Amino acid sequence: MSHNTFGHLFRVTTFGESHGPALGCVVDGCPPLIPITAEEIQAELDRRRPGQSRFTTQRREPDEVKILSGVFTDEAGVQVTTGTPIALMIENVDQRSKDYGEIKNSYRPGHADFTYDAKYGIRDHRGGGRSSARETAARVAAGAIARKLVPGMVVRGALVQMGPHRIDRANWDWNEVGNNPFFCPDAKAAAFYADYLDGIRKAGSSVGAVIEIVVENVPPGLGAPIYGKLDGDLAAAMMSINAVKGVEIGAGFAAAELTGEENADEMRFGNDGKPMFLSNNAGGILGGISTGQPLVVRFAVKPTSSILTERRSVDRFGRETDVMTKGRHDPCVGIRAVPVGEAMAACVVADHLLRHRGQVGESRPWPFEPRPERRES
Q1: Predicted model pTM
Q2: Which terminus of the chain has a smaller tally of CB atoms within 10 A, N or C?
Q3: Of 326, 327, 339, 336, the residue nearest 53 (C-alpha)
């Protein structure tokens, strides 16, 4: 299987399966002397960890990370990166492979069972194997390192819609995200989601969600205008997450409803003499290059395909069958997609920062500031 690596200079390769002995990643290209500890990585993994409420899968995985390489304790007693590949491992300890015995030869509707078998001629039926969302734990671990690489960067995510029910943006409170099991910034909506998802869960069904990621303190100038667009890489990163079926940047699809006057992010000079934008319909990216405004990306997560309601399908022997998926599954997989989306955004920005430095140097002055004089040849 190819294409298990993403990124150009900040490169992440993930490995492992849902019911294998372990999963993890190798982060290559991280600069040396970045302070990082297992505890910082663990803090991000704990946000994604399953079994923390009745609204997620009851699989009990501690998701304890082990740093195998690439980190060294310096003379001051601080753990820092060495510039060599960072290997991270997370052991699986609560697999129940027997739950999937009855569907060993059947294709679950909505899952990657059929496509994996069609491509490789073999598939791991135990929880989906490599196609399982369990793989995203490795991405979250890598994202914890990426967060440390970009000075001052703040990456936050929130669930802004569950099924057809959107939050009230007038109630948005980032502090509320950590106070409910949905990563929801609207306390009133979170209370509604609890009852709504209880009904979905007890019916043996599932529902989708929309997640919004906001990345603040991103310097202007990241990205390239043609095939290395920052928004193009962000979109690809989000689409690579399991069950994601749509991505939008800034105003996104709503921009099609706006006039040119409404959509244009007008500009003035701020008190510091630097250009500032009066709105952010562009989501912090113009021409594929960051503007210095917050990056705003949203992605839609489909309902979990593993449900207790029988669905019509076929098996690998050419027979028609009905499939009901037993086991432990998220009634709304979008909930735990929040820290995954944050991690992928952090990795993309970190990668683009390194690419930017490689092309134009450590830093570039803002427009309208004195430029370094060119040396005469």
Answers
A1: 0.91
A2: C
A3: 336
For residue 197, the one-letter residue type is L
pLDDT beneath 50, residues of the chain: 377
User: Cα–Cα distance between 57 and 374 in angstroms, integer?
Assistant: 60
Q: Which helix (H) or strand (E) element contains residue 34?
A: none
Rounded Cα gap, residues 270 and 278, in angstroms: 10
Alpha carbons 314 and 279: distance in angstroms, whole number: 51
> Distance (Å, rounded) from C-alpha 348 to C-alpha 3?
16
For residue 317, give both structure tokens.
Answer: 């022997």
pLDDT of residue 209: 97
| Distance in angstroms (rounded) separating the CA atoms of residues 208 and 332 | 6
Beta strand extents in the chain (DSSP E only): 5-6, 11-16, 22-28, 65-69, 71-73, 79-81, 86-91, 154-162, 165-166, 209-216, 244-249, 267-269, 275-277, 285-286, 289-290, 295-301, 311-314, 320-323
Non-local (6+) Cβ contacts of 286 within 8 A are: 265
The tokens for 164 are: 């057809």
User: pLDDT tens-digit profile of 90-135?
Assistant: 998 865 656 666 777 888 888 888 888 889 888 877 767 788 888 9
The Cα–Cα gap between 143 and 315 comes to 38
Burial environment of residue 71 by CB neighbours within 10 A (0 to 12, 13 to 18, 19 or more): buried
Over the stretch 140-188, which tens digit does the pLDDT of each residue have?
Answer: 999 999 999 999 999 999 999 999 999 999 999 999 999 999 999 999 9
The region, left, alpha or beta by phi > 0 then psi within -120 to 50, assigned to residue 4 is: alpha
